[in-house]
Amino acid sequence: MKALYKRWLIMGLTLSIFGLARLRRALESQLDSELEGILDESGAIASKKIKEGRSAPVVPMPVSATTVTFSGTVIRNGTRFALRETGGVLYTLDSTGRAWPFEGEDVRVTGKLDTSTRMLHVDEITTMAS
Fold it and tell me: Bridge partners of 67?
């Protein structure tokens, strides 16, 4: 009797995994088609090819963004890094790889600011001269 229960349990789990995988593929394809439609309407490049042959959406940079320079301290903000400006304003940094060596230091960051999300697209980070 235990063998029968074990067999049914394994069969149920296997079917559940296949069902969830199929649901995930369906939702991913629906999301991809919706994102491509949105990005196509804005006039941006809709997708680029990646290794698996699927298309990944490309998020367009703000067209009207100008290069700005901020001074402040690089801090952790959850899993990302942020710049706390000397005035207390917090800007999320898009480049974790460039920011982590400067954590806790006073820096000057040059980049493009996306005002809608307060995301600072980093071009250069330098330490402030003491």
Answer: 112
Domain boundaries, the chain: 2-57, 67-127
Nearest residue to 113 (alpha-carbon basis) of 83, 81, 130, 91: 91
Within 13 Å, how many C-alpha atoms sit on residue 84's CB side?
10
Q: Are strands 67-77 and 106-114 parallel, antiparallel or unpaired?
A: antiparallel
Q: In terms of CATH, what superfamily is 67-127?
A: NigD-like N-terminal OB domain (2.40.50.500)
Which tens digits make up the pLDDT trace of 79-112? 889 999 988 889 999 888 888 899 999 999 999 9
Q: Which two tokens stand for residue 53?
A: 């042959």
CA 110, distance to chain mean position in Å, is 20
